[in-house]
Amino acid sequence: MADHEHDGMYRIEHRPDHAYTCPEGMKGCKAINTAGNPCNKAKMHPDHHLPTLNLFGSGNRFAYQNAKKHWSVWLTAALIHAQLPRGLDSVLVEGQLCFPTHNAPDQGNHRYFIEKALGDVLETGGWLAKDDWDHYEFGNLARVVRPGERWLSLVLMPNALITPAQGQLAL
């Protein structure tokens, strides 16, 4: 989920466990996960896919809210696991998405959802005061193609940390 290097960069990674499988008339994923157990998680759960707008069909707001809820939980846990300090002045994020083939959807379908969900989590979780342009910048999102692999890797680069006890900027 995360890499604990503290070279000024904090890395979080996501690798979907398996594709969503649900026979008609049933609820929850029936695929067997890597632990050898039935998944039983909802379709929008991060274990099933990389984040993308393609999941929402013709713009179903309930599907969007459900997916954003699941990804917010995952992102919050990943940021905590990466030990990203709270109270940052600003952060720059860059990332990579890996696909098993060259037939990946356009970058915007993935970029929008990742950028929006992560910015909201950074603000609501107290890592940033606001997720506006002055505090949060989402830079490059590169594509990697490796047969049989699907993953997301994000690098967060804080620009400065506000230390509440001192009221000063720590670099």
The share of residues in helices is 10-25%
Structural class computed from helices and strand pairing: alpha+beta
Rounded to the nearest angstrom, the distance between the terminal CA atoms is 26 Å
Number of strand segments: 6
Q: What overall geometry do the principal axes of the alpha carbons give?
A: globular
Topology as a string of helices (H) and strands (E): EEHEHEEE
What are the segments in which pLDDT stays under 50 over at least 5 consecutive residues? 165-171
- Mean pLDDT across residues: 81
Which short descriptors sum up this protein?
single chain, 171 residues, alpha+beta, 6-stranded mixed β-sheet, 2 helices, disordered C terminus
Summarize the SSE layout with pairings.
Elements (H helix, E strand, L loop, with lengths): L1 E2 L6 E5 L46 H21 L6 E12 L7 H18 L11 E10 L5 E13 L4 E3 L1
Helix pairs in contact: 1-2
Can you characterise this structure?
This protein has 171 residues and is α+β, with helices and mostly antiparallel strands. The protein has two helices and six strands. The chain has helices at residues 61-81, 107-124, and strands at 2-3, 10-14, 88-99, 136-145, 151-163, 168-170. β5 (151-163) and β6 (168-170) form a beta hairpin. α1 packs across α2. The protein is globular and about 50 Å long. The two termini are 26 Å apart. Mean pLDDT is 81; it is low at 165-171.
